[in-house]
Amino acid sequence: MQEDHEFVEIPQNNPQPNLNRVSYMSSDEVSISEWVVIMLIMCVPIVNIVMLCVWAFDSSTKASKANWAKASLIFVGISVVLGILFAIAFGSIFASMMGGAANPGSFY
């Protein structure tokens, strides 16, 4: 004896997501073209530091760009401090090799 089973297709309430990049990109995300412009601006001396400050502390800047700018400013600060420490260290080593800073020119 064979039973007939009726298969009923149950409609899904959640359709498949649209994988088109433009449709699922939220307005808070920074686009690839914006990142390219940002990287070009970061290549210009002095302007890069000014723009990092603007992006880090401006309330209208997208959250991801603001966080990146804040992290970049932290790295700039660390780099400046380390640069000063290395300059002092190597400057004192160089001065001691030249006979001290108190007697310049007394190395002969």
Distance between the termini: 115 Å
Shape: elongated
Number of strands: 0
Give Rg in angstroms: 30 Å
Oligomer: single chain
Helix/strand-derived category reads mainly alpha
Mean pLDDT: 82
How many separate helices? 4
Low-confidence stretches: none
What is the N-to-C order of secondary-structure elements (H for helix, E for strand)? HHHH
Beta-strand content bin:
under 5%
The main pleated sheet reads as:
none
What can you tell me about this protein's structure?
There is one protein chain. The chain is mainly alpha-helical and 108 residues long. It has a domain at 28-97. The chain is built from four helices and no strands. The chain has helices at residues 21-24, 32-42, 47-57, 63-97. Helix 3 (47-57) crosses helix 4. The radius of gyration is 30 Å and the shape is elongated. It starts with 20 loop residues before the first helix and ends in an 11-residue tail after the last helix. The mean pLDDT is 82.
Annotation keywords:
single chain, 108 residues, mainly alpha, 4 helices, 56% helix, 0% strand
What layout of secondary structure does this protein have?
Elements: H1 21-24, H2 32-42, H3 47-57, H4 63-97
Helix pairs in contact: 3-4
